[in-house]
Amino acid sequence: MRPGAMTLPPLATVVLLSLVVGCAGGTAVTRARSLPDARAVDALFRDYDGPERPGASVVVIHEGKVVLRRAYGLADLEKRAPATPESNYRLASLSKQFTATAILLLVQDRKLRLDDHVVDVLPGFPASLKDVRVHHLLQHTSGIWDYEDFVPATQTVQVKDRDVLELLSRTERTWFAPGTAVRYSNSGYAVLALIVQQVSGMPFARFLHERVFVPSGMRSSVAHEDGVSTVVRRAYGYAVDRDGFIPRDQSPTSAVLGDGGIYSSVDDLVAWDRALDSHALVSEELQKQAWTPPTLPGGTPSRYGFGWFVDNDGGRQRLSHHGETSGFTNAIVKYPEQRLTVIVLTNRAGGEPWTLAQYLADPWLGPPGNPGSTWPFVTLPNAH
């Protein structure tokens, strides 16, 4: 089912009221002057609610304040642990905005330039890809192949970021000349994680912890490495078959960090959103660059900046990303000028959290909005 195909209550039911919004179980947690009616929100998420279902956590942030914070269903079916706003889900491709920020921090530190050729920065990067620059990786304009194309379905040992270089060496060409087109590739963000490690002199996961998560106030977020780090309040992933929900928490590419290996909660992502808006990590100038997609040769516009899809929604800049991986499907949509962000994290394969996120955002925007306008703009590669 593609975006827009879900059956949802009419937007008219999502009226703006003054009320108290609860988290999982209806516990009151915050008060705002105007926000969507809680019953209408519950109706939107009815497929995630219940004592036997993988769940969802959702937050709406307006002008720096949490105006809606709820959770539904279970984070762990075996233990019957309920999902909460503190549950940590694997972010999948929502991780890319953090990898991009790590690169921008190195640029801000003057240890790296966006124009640097990757082959000059990263030992072991295939010489056949010598024309690829750092900004090409960030913007998916490198043309390099997705490493998942070289991982067989029978793979049992998990692939890690460092393995991506060997996988990329199996081809001696790019899809197109770097900088001339856009092709979404998880390889670019795995390579960016390796660049962070090489230039900073510390493991990528530690760099994120020390330079991104801690300064942002993200207390439980982690780039998870099995046997090295722990995910507290962990949500486990599930898929659906004819007998119901089955565990589906990992795949052979789940250990790659740069493109999708971060675990976080909607509560931590509130702190992240505030760090973005206040430019607590990178300068306003660099942040603006991250949210400006390149113009391709011939004047063709792109829709991807650094770790974010970027488009114009009724005259407003819209930032978005979706993430699909083994057992998790997530979405974030952000309107910087309106200071509005909606985040939906789910621990199940499938579903359309991007549609839910947009429906929650639309009532706040007013004319000249595009009610129910849908994204994503591309289909992501196979779950990783």
Low-confidence stretches: 1-34
SSE string: EEHEEEEEHHHHHHEEEEHHEEEEH
Name of the CATH first level: Alpha Beta
> Strand arrangement, largest sheet?
4-3-15-14-13-12
Structural class: alpha+beta
**Tell me, what's the shape?**
globular
Q: In the residues, how many domains can be counted?
A: 1
GO molecular function: hydrolase activity
Domain Beta-lactamase-related: 41-352
Protein name: Class A beta-lactamase-related serine hydrolase
Pfam family, one: Beta-lactamase
How would you characterize the overall build of this protein?
By secondary structure, the protein is of the alpha+beta class. It has one domain (11-365): Beta-lactamase. Helices cover 25% and strands 21% of the residues. Strands 4-3-15-14-13-12 form a six-stranded antiparallel sheet, sandwiched between helices. A three-stranded antiparallel sheet has the order 7-11-8. Strands 1-2 form a two-stranded antiparallel sheet. A hairpin with a 2-residue loop joins strand 12 (309-313) and strand 13. Mean pLDDT is 87; it is low at 1-34. GO terms for molecular function: hydrolase activity.
